[in-house]
Amino acid sequence: MVNEFSGFISMFWVIFSFSFLVALTGAMAPGPLLTYTIIKSAKTNKRGYLIGLWVIIGHSMLEMGIIIFLLLGFSFVLKNIIVVRVIGVVGGIILTYFGGSIIRDVYVGKISTTFLNSSGEQSQDASPAKNKGMENPVIGGIMVSMSNPYWWIWWATIGLAFIVQFDISFTQWPRLIAFFLGHEAGDLFWYLIVSIFAFFGLRHLNRKVYYGILLLCGIFMILFGIYMGISPFFQKTL
Length: 238
Known about the structure:
Layout: H1 2-27, H2 32-43, H3 51-71, H4 75-78, H5 81-108, H6 137-146, H7 149-165, H8 173-201, H9 207-230
Helix pairs in contact: 1-8, 2-6, 2-8, 3-6, 3-7, 3-8, 5-7, 5-9
């Protein structure tokens, strides 16, 4: 009994640890979800340091769905080049629109800067920027994740390989739980750090610098969206 329990704990910890590290390395790579988290954390007046938590809750809901999807045997769908191209085009359009809306809101002055308290200046525009469905960080976490075709490709390749390597299935539910919790813990660890630094750090900038950062983020989102929209067409196979 003791040996079985120790073996269970050892197996659980190994899968959790590997899943955590793999997720962390992916989460630390620059991407649209990271940019979205930085922007939302800086713009949220109350508890913006928790935005990373809410974003990853939405992100994890989507990943729970795709894990179930893969375990049911539909991995071939995500390896279809036509599907990847469609996801790339749609995702690229969404990210380009999101980046453009940031630039537009900065240009017309829709983004509130009342939280920039260290510079001693207060903005007269108190209405927050509205990005139609992206204001809720949980929904935003889902939408931005879905719009990234490389997130789908990651799960169709690295994620699926991990599932096969560690014999993760519905019947091996402890392994499944360890894999899922480890993966989401890796994402949450990094995105909480990002949201904490964005919330407290960006609040000590003046308005022009803050707007400049938002413009750079918006340009990055547009360029990333364009890249994701066209890059799948240069791939013949996955």
